[in-house]
Amino acid sequence: MFVTRIPNRVSKAHQTLRCQRTLFDRLRIVSFLDYLVTCTHPQHGVMAASAPSSSGGEPDPNSTNLRPPGTSYDAWCGVAHGCTRKLGMKICGFLQKNNNLEEKISSFKERSSKDLLDNSDRDSRFRRTETDFSNLFARDLLPAKNGEEPTMQFLLEVVDILTNYVRKTFDRSTKVLDFHHPHQLLEGMEGFNLELSDQPESLEQILVDCRDTLKYGVRTGHPRFFNQLSTGLDIIGLAGEWLTSTANTNMFTYEIAPVFVLMEQLTLKKMREIIGWPDGEGDGIFSPGGAISNMYSVMTARYKFFPEVKTKGMNAAPRLVLFTSEHSHYSIKKASAALGFGTENLILLNTDERGRVIPADLEAKVIDAKARGCVPMFVNATAGSTVYGAFDPIHEIADICEKYNMWLHVDGAWGGGLLMSRKHRHKLSGVERANSVTWNPHKMMGVPLQCSAILVRERGVLSGCNSMCAGYLFQPDKQYDVSYDTGDKAIQCGRHVDIFKFWLMWKAKGTIGFEHHIDKCLDLSHYLYTKIRNREGYQMVFEGEPQHTNVCFWYLPPGIRDMPDGQERRERLHKVAPKIKAMMMESGTTMVGYQPQGDKVNFFRMVISNPAATRSDIDFLTDEIERLGHDL
Amino acid sequence: MFVTRIPNRVSKAHQTLRCQRTLFDRLRIVSFLDYLVTCTHPQHGVMAASAPSSSGGEPDPNSTNLRPPGTSYDAWCGVAHGCTRKLGMKICGFLQKNNNLEEKISSFKERSSKDLLDNSDRDSRFRRTETDFSNLFARDLLPAKNGEEPTMQFLLEVVDILTNYVRKTFDRSTKVLDFHHPHQLLEGMEGFNLELSDQPESLEQILVDCRDTLKYGVRTGHPRFFNQLSTGLDIIGLAGEWLTSTANTNMFTYEIAPVFVLMEQLTLKKMREIIGWPDGEGDGIFSPGGAISNMYSVMTARYKFFPEVKTKGMNAAPRLVLFTSEHSHYSIKKASAALGFGTENLILLNTDERGRVIPADLEAKVIDAKARGCVPMFVNATAGSTVYGAFDPIHEIADICEKYNMWLHVDGAWGGGLLMSRKHRHKLSGVERANSVTWNPHKMMGVPLQCSAILVRERGVLSGCNSMCAGYLFQPDKQYDVSYDTGDKAIQCGRHVDIFKFWLMWKAKGTIGFEHHIDKCLDLSHYLYTKIRNREGYQMVFEGEPQHTNVCFWYLPPGIRDMPDGQERRERLHKVAPKIKAMMMESGTTMVGYQPQGDKVNFFRMVISNPAATRSDIDFLTDEIERLGHDL
């Protein structure tokens, strides 16, 4: 069935593995020494010397170099062990300070054989031996017979690639990215072939593919990557995600995810406590991102007010309207389209010059909607808007929601993390009055993607809204308390384990660790703001200290600084940020986002969520903008 | 800011690390030997012996045992290297067969110093040194200053835990699970404390937490885990997921996920080719599971027929009805509730005794709905139903869809994988006539969770339905071809990279590798079916060979085999599967699902998607059912 195909990139793969090959040769010789040492062992004596010694032969570059299990680490120990027997006496004379050498060596000898017994299984597996992957295929890995050793070696080789990537990610002398256009990558960069085929590739090729995938990607954990709200590479979170992948289970029932289900419940409760809901009561679930969390909030609100929509559809309800800021995230709009409200029934609220909702505008629009025969049902208050980082005034919005009996949702996907900071959480003051909150730990808290929570104040609405009681998953006659089978609350069936990395980070950092991270990011954005607000060539998009880490600014190349305000200047300025960004990406030195907003032409939006970033990286960014933009 | 807290589980953590501690002591002594060897080196001579030797001192159990970078592997080499100088001549006499020993040793000596230079960076990093994690915290890891070495050591320690878990997963002498009730885990099993606190835990505690998390979880890759449609632990997929976590990026733009975006496009095209759409044309996206993929299909259909719903809501459309089998997955029902159709407007279709839709029933219900003034819009045909594994007759359903101008969706979440098999793909005959298809590689194809695709035949509908053109993500003035910014097609904003593990598996196995896996699973279910269909004590839920790997059966303990059919027998039989399942979980030997269906009392649903399963595991399952159920 399987045909071994000649790898299409043999030369490159060989090149890549060349430096490992020398190591392999070395290990072979050490293995040979191991053999010699074994021969000198009293229990084996010279007898063993007549046994065939395949590991002592000439290295054969064409052979499958899989060493039998247990030889690598044992070999080293054997060398050391054997050596000490003969070497100990010889070198004693050289030493003045170590009077207890004999004792140490003797103790080592005694211990080492015992330890080898205790740890042989563990250690022999962990140590990477040099393996020729060019003749190995996926079918040779577990669960294949004798698949354990190649599996371990393959995984360790992958880990080597990944740990090297991790190291380089934090190394400022590496690029953030090595940019190529789509057509270039599709044509196959240096043999990196993205096309899929009928026949398998060797594991050697797979390893090369892994390296290439990372090589042509973007280092989102690099200290100078500022392009998105989610940046950074948290090591604990990474470890958590590796474990999650290894556990490879599903959140729908306690039955197959007991630990993760409990972690989710405890963590959600903790988040609700931090929001300020009494005793952390309420409900919630982790969802595949803030957009889905926001969608949950609209669905849950609708179910609360018009439960009959679940069975009868939107025709059973009056014409419902939703409210959100013109600066809010587009997911509210996506939800209103998807859930059958229609984007025209999502009413956009005016904001002040800082991007914060004007409560009076909300009330006026509520009154107007009612007058038109619509039913105002849902208000989204943004805590940390995407571009400006603005926090809507929750208390004032909550007053209006109470007055007109509307559901208050707080979209804290970006700003929710500030709840962890005693210094900054006042920006979400009033969040405890919300009926639901979106909070993405994968943004400001540095948790790896994906990790987003929807939290609901009233217990029962979420499950009432979504449960369908499928008999093949949620059997009522299980032997355990089935209230822990939380999957029926979700609009998903299978649900990825997003909780573990977050739980593990919380354990490892403590609440104060998150607080420290958030305070540090806000300090850095303050540094940037104070640095550029009066600097020549910069113009702030809005006045005053930003509320979040978003610092929005135009860079004005000297050529347009003195131009009179007007259409021509606007048109030229509009092109500056995209041009600088393109050059940044081509040179790969740093990345920062830009966009227009309303009638404002393209400006840079700097955001800081990256724990690796320092003031020097901020300085680097501004220097880079000036370097690249000076002559535009 | 940070306070070092005494770990609350010191005794356990120490116990767990005890075996490592002895290894650590050994390493210390080896390091000491290294020092001795250095002293004998001609370039250092006896001079070096007078230098202070901290590594040669008495092991101090309280010290932070972090070795400086580069000492571990080098130490071993040093020992071996030094040893050979003195040892070589001594042991020559013992050897008969190796005439070229001197040459080998000399060549090794020459090579090793050069290699150490070439590989020093690589190897010193990769090699795990014994590290005392009890005084290390998350804050000591990268990006902390000097954080590289602890980061590498921490990650390698985690990998050690994970690779041990992987090995045990495939070991039939281990349990599938170690079951505990929620309250037991919440109370803290052997000190496994799930609660989160303000202060950080040491990395030692974090490692113990990782071990405990796996210990109390369920080995979904175990050869005897048959509980869900997603089983197994694919090593290539696992490696892919580890890489994905390390890259930690987001699918919304080409800008930050260039390689992954292209991989997604190419893979989706390949899938469309396999479905049979001309030239693989069409559209699609990976979504967080089959339920969301099915939701996409309904949204897309609605947009195709009533695009005004996007802006005006469901009130702009007539009363729309959807059709699906009574055996179909509950996600169709969830979608009809969420999207504003209402579950009552989802009309359930009758099936034959094998769980396949009866096309005539569809047509009759379409006609009836029209007569009631409704507009039939969408039909879901299931390819591989959840419980019976039934394949609806797609061609006959497609005929009716064409006749009445309805969208045909094929939910191949479970059965889609059979398209990869030349032997079994006929079961989806007609799928090329579908307007959209759900296909979950994370089920039958063994890809780690989550990996689900929604594929749409007509290009443009998916993006038309969902795009909102957010200016801060999808800037039209980027320097590259922005048609590769595919994120606006999604209802999500941030989107996890689900493609890479699948792409990598396809590379590693080839199309034929997937085919082989699928054929093997179906062979195994055939084996089970033929084994039990006439076996005493078993009764099949439906007659005839199953279409998919689902084998549905009752086990009848001797005590009820001769009971007359009737209410009492039904009630007793209804309790058998839950009781056996509970005992299975308590003993941890295997796991298989059960459920009622319609008027049929609880029965076992065996499904095989696990590549590790063999006939002996099938035999084990039936033996176990008989052992546990015999006296019920």
From TrEMBL, chains A, B:
Entry's EC annotation: 4.1.1.15
Catalysis performed (reactions): L-glutamate + H(+) = 4-aminobutanoate + CO2
Entry keyword annotation includes Glycoprotein: no
Function field: Catalyzes the synthesis of the inhibitory neurotransmitter gamma-aminobutyric acid (GABA) with pyridoxal 5'-phosphate as cofactor.
Modified residues (N6-(pyridoxal phosphate)lysine): 443
Official protein name in the record: Glutamate decarboxylase 1
Subunit structure: Homodimer.
Matching SUPFAM superfamilies: PLP-dependent transferases
Cofactor: pyridoxal 5'-phosphate
Enzyme class label: lyase
A GO BP entry: gamma-aminobutyric acid biosynthetic process
The organism's place on the tree of life at top rank: Eukaryota
Gene3D superfamilies given in the database record: 3.90.1150.170, Type I PLP-dependent aspartate aminotransferase-like (Major domain)
Family membership noted in the UniProt record: Belongs to the group II decarboxylase family.
A Pfam family annotated for this UniProt entry: Pyridoxal_deC
Lyase as UniProt keyword: yes
Record keywords, A-Z: Decarboxylase, Lyase, Neurotransmitter biosynthesis, Phosphoprotein, Pyridoxal phosphate
Native source organism of the sequence: Coregonus suidteri
GO-annotated cellular components: cytoplasm; presynaptic active zone
GO molecular function: glutamate decarboxylase activity; pyridoxal phosphate binding
UniProt region (Disordered), positions on chain: 47-67
